[in-house]
Amino acid sequence: MGILIEKTQDCPYVNFSEEGILEIEGRSITEDPFTFWQPLLEWVEGYCKNPSPTTQLIVYLEYSNSSSNKYISEIFHKLEEVHGKKTQISVKWRYELEDDAILQLGHDFSSIFSLPFKFEEVAEARERFKKVKIRSKKTGSEAIISYRYWDAIVRNGHGDEYQILQEFS
Predict the structure, then answer these.
(1) Which of 2, 73, 109, 141 is the most exposed place for a label (fewest CB within 10 A)?
(2) Cα 73 to the center of its chain, rounded Å
(3) CB 78 within 8 A of CB 48
(4) Ramachandran sector of residue 98 (left: φ over 0; alpha: ψ -120 to 50; beta: rest)
(5) Which pLDDT value is given to residue 127?
(6) What domains does the chain contain, in order, with CATH numbers?
(7) Are strands 21-28 and 54-64 parallel, antiparallel or unpaired?
(8) Average confidence score pLDDT of the chain
(9) Residue 23: count of CB within 10 angstroms of its CB
(10) Other beta carbons less than 10 A from residue 162's beta carbon
(11) Coil, helix or strand at residue 108
(12) Dihedral of CA 150/19/66/38: which sign?
């Protein structure tokens, strides 16, 4: 079973799927990094025991504090241990136009770990702000979530369980 976490002001969106797509996007400045990151690290450890033949880690950070960077580094370390043995790892490091600090952080990780990094500059980040209002067909409860979160729900095979009520730009 994967992990899907909606982004907050302090914690990033996370979608780790057993199909080999691991996404981290947003700001990571949580005051309790252990509580947020430790379950993710444990999931990656479990995933690495029986990974998908190919694994792509997609990182798109707005900001990340040093405590979060330590956990991200641990995730890279776990993936590096199985790269080329159990799975082929690739890292897509996305950064916003002119965000030199996040670009440099990606280069720092790239120089530490022997994983193939691809750097992708994102000129516009409007997709992060799109929202969608959904209703559970089972319970009738409604929620407004990010379009990225909705996309992950669909990709994980649960889209039929909800009805889209409204899309916001």
Answers:
(1) 141
(2) 14
(3) yes
(4) left
(5) 56
(6) 3-128 (3.30.750), 130-169 (no CATH)
(7) parallel
(8) 91
(9) 20
(10) 20
(11) helix
(12) positive
